[in-house]
TrEMBL record:
Positions bound to 4-amino-2-methyl-5-(diphosphooxymethyl)pyrimidine: 34-38, 66, 105, 135
Highest classification ranks of the organism: Bacteria, Bacillati, Actinomycetota, Actinomycetes, Propionibacteriales
GO biological process, one term: thiamine biosynthetic process
Protein name (database record): Thiamine-phosphate synthase
Gene this protein is translated from: thiE
Organism: Solicola gregarius
Binding site for 2-[(2R,5Z)-2-carboxy-4-methylthiazol-5(2H)-ylidene]ethyl phosphate: 132-134, 165, 185-186
């Protein structure tokens, strides 16, 4: 079951063990995790997946793998997140099967015209909302207006997560603009207390979703 409200994408943990950060973040309310280690070899990525899987225990929070659908398949992970330099969602679907969770980065409205890959995706990611030091090779920031435009143009049943420069100060704005969840790296991985950071983000998102629906 895909719950996109608070999506932790792994990143720099300031020297702390990643499994500890992810475990704490899940305790704090993260609903989805993506293992993202751009320089890791497949065997290292697979070993890291196993560590994270132990860290989240029986919470059933899905762990997706960034980029590498083969590692996603061999580890038995929940699925994969892909972007413009990766295999296409439809190809990932063929590889991973109907039950896998597949996410796709969306940079502009024109991409929504690729209906085969939109249909193959379980969620789309508005990327990036704002410029971020965590990933500098992004396309131009969409801003809140871009998030709103994507939401209006997308199939209504497909969840939209937003990524890039999101923290507790702006998360509610992103939800108000139409995102169904936020994806963050530094707001949790760099936080002094990742569990507390996740808890604050989760209640901010939940409150904003409740306001939007009322
Ligand atoms: C949730 C989420 N959204 C966007 C991205 C970025 O994916 P991509 O464009 O493929 O860039 P890399 O992460 O591979 O550098 C993401 N990973 N997760
Ligand atoms: C992994 C990633 N993808 C992005 C995109 O725009 O596609 S931005 C990003 C990093 C987001 O980090 P932070 O939460 O620290 O800003
Ligand atoms: Mg990628």
């Amino acid at each position: 079951m895909l719950d996109p409200r608070l999506y932790l994408v792994t990143g720099d943990t300031r020297g702390r063990p990643l499994a500890d950060i992810v475990g704490a973040a899940v305790d704090g309310g993260v609903t989805l995790v993506q293992l993202r280690e751009k320089d890791a070899r497949p065997d290292t990525l697979a070993a890291r997946y196993d560590e994270l899987s132990i860290a989240i225990g029986d919470t059933r929070v899905p762990i997706l793998v960034n980029d590498d659908a083969d590692v996603a398949r061999t580890t038995g992970s929940a699925g994969v997140h892909v972007g413009p330099d990766d295999i296409a969602p439809a190809e990932a679907r063929d590889l991973l099967g109907a039950d896998a969770l597949i996410g796709w980065s969306i940079h502009d409205l024109a991409q929504l015209g690729d209906t085969e890959n939109v249909r193959a995706s379980d969620y789309l990611a508005a990327s990036p909302v704002w410029a971020t030091a965590t990933k500098t090779d992004t396309t131009a920031p969409l801003g809140l207006a871009g998030v709103a435009a994507l939401r209006r143009s997308m199939p209504p049943h497909v969840p939209l997560v937003a990524i890039g420069g999101i923290d507790a100060t702006n998360a509610a704005d992103v939800i108000a603009a139409g995102a169904d969840g936020i994806a963050v790296v530094s707001a949790i991985c760099s936080a002094a207390d990742p569990e507390a950071a996740a808890c604050e983000l989760r209640s901010t998102v939940d409150d904003a979703l409740a306001r939007r629906e009322s």
